[in-house]
Amino acid sequence: MCTIERWEPTFLYPGRPPHELIALIILNTPITDTATFRQIWFKASYRVCADGGANRLLAASEAMRQSFVPDLIKGDLDSIRPDIKRHFEQLGVPIVEDPDQYATDLGKCVKAVAEQDAAKRTEHVIVILGGLQGRLDQTMHTLHAITKLAKTRKRVWVVSEESLACVLDKGEHELVIDQHILGPTCGLLPIGTDSALVTTKGLEWNLSDTETSMSTMVSTSNHIVSDLVQVTTNRLIVWTCAILAS
Fold this sequence. Notes:
The chain is built from 5 helices and 15 strands. It has 246 residues and is α/β, with parallel strands linked by helices. It is globular.
């Protein structure tokens, strides 16, 4: 019997407790939607800044500095400002320098979450804040990273100012959509695979065992029309949808 994977980003939904433990990784990108940021922050049980992500955290929490203290800051530490480094050191935050130039700060923080899970015998769902805006190569790195992570972690989400993304592995999936928060625009992207055969329900333009690839057709600018979107795919694909302005 086929297992249907159910996806529900309750970390974005006000008044809804998360179903799973959340590990928040803050990247070095501007935090402009502070309402969404705070929603995720207070639902996370483990919070990590990737190097200069500490600068972004402090900028977003200037008026409430004492309420926004991460569990860890990690990276090659070439981006964190000296005054912000001192600020968090004084608050007792572990700051770990990892000079490995063959690993990104995101990868180093994912490793830190894995080490935390191993030590505590937990399994966090990773939510990455940032990484889908700005330079195209950095956006592609984020998509590359979550595609690789799909092989070892059951759920990884990426949240930016305007978009939410996750990787759907081969099989059947249900995405629970709060249409006051997400949509209507959405897409299914064949990243990390040559092509995929995809069937959907709950979209304005549903796919029916349709091939999607970079050389044939990609489902972008589709619209969510239901609180439950169903996706069946024979290969790994990336699901993305818009986040409505707070």
